[in-house]
Each structure stands twice: as structure tokens, then as C-alpha cells.
Amino acid sequence: MVNTSKAALSCGLKDRQWEVTVAVSAAVEKELKSSEAVILEVKKILNSNKYTDEEYSTVVAGFIDQVIEHLEAIILLTRSNINGSAFALVRSVAEGLVRGVWFTACATQPQVLKFRNDDKIDPTFGEMSEAIDKKCGIDFFADFKKRSWNPLNSYTHTGILQIGRRFTGNVLEPSYKDAEIIEMIRMITVCILLLVRPYLVRQKHDISAKGIDALGGKYGKHQI
User: Fold this and answer.
1) How many CB atoms lie within 10 A of CB 83?
2) What pLDDT score does 220 carry?
3) What is the pTM of this model?
4) Most buried among 11, 104, 144, 224, using CB within 10 Å?
């Protein structure tokens, strides 16, 4: 939180060195490398198949590609110690996950075409989350929305969660904790697995979908 005491405020703004350097702890770097390994395996699985050119398929393929790029950008930002911008991108990953799974599992053909032609999606993030749970017989996405949406908005829209981490005591110097960074990296890495798997299933690439399951199991046990 922002320090509200009446002590003098000092600015610790630093000249940004634009070469890519490892400016993170060993624990964070380990998590980043693990996430990178997951991304590489996901790409290998995706590249091993062919996909239909149905409207929903090309839309979801675009979501997958964009979410992977966001994840790669977050890794680069984190490694460069530009954590505020990394955290600001996380909501876009969550939105890409929910939209992509909704288009895979729930959207009608008119809804797909409305998005393609008019760039409009009528259901809200929460409504899409509930629809996915109902269609897939699970209890995950609605709870994910409930737990994460307000924090995600605060980071993306420069709310108090973001502003509070611009300070170290009374000094204007970022104070993102390793545990927070690691939790964020793990969440977005799981998001790409959750996005890709149902797409592979609908495309009838069951062996590849099982490969995603196995990859998620290894990642969950910190074996990658």
C-alpha cells in the first residue's frame, strides 16, 4: 500500500539500461525458465497438427497465438525488472483464456461471425465464465473470475495494487515481491495450458490434448 505517513517522499527513479539483463532473483529466474520450457513444449504440440479453417478455429488460433506472445512479453519484462508493465498484461492473458475457451466450447456460429465481422462479443467476462463451466460440467472459470477480476483490473488500470508497489517505504522505487512475481508467472503459464487443451480436443487431436495434460502435471509438480 502507499505509505501515508508525513515523512518526506524521496524519488528513486533510475536511468533505464535498455540491454536485456537478468535482474531477478534465482527463484524468479527458475520460474521464468520453467515457464519458457512449457511454452516451447506447447508450441511443439501445436505445430505437430493441422487444424480446420472453420471460423471458430481461426479465431481461437489467434487467441492462442496472442496469449503466448503476451506470456513471452511478460517473461521479458520480468527478466528486465519492469514488473509493473508485466503485471498490467496479466488481465489480457486471462481475457484471452476465457474468450478462447468460450469460442471453442460455447459460442454459436452467429456469435463467432459477429466477433469476426463486427469485433463484438455480447456476453460479459463473467457470463462467458459461467457458460464454460456449465457446458463443460466443471466449477472453475466462474470462481477464477470472482477471485481474480478485481486484482487484475487494479494492475491493468493502474489501481492501488499497482500504485502501492511503486513505493519502497517513502522512496518512489518499485517493490514487487518475489512470491507475487512467481505466483503471477505460474498463473499465466497455466492459462495457456487451459486455453490450448479444449481447442485440441475439439479439433480431435486427442493424443496432443493428453500431451497438454501430461505437461500440466509435470509443471504442477515443478518437474519442468
Assistant:
1) 23
2) 94
3) 0.89
4) 104
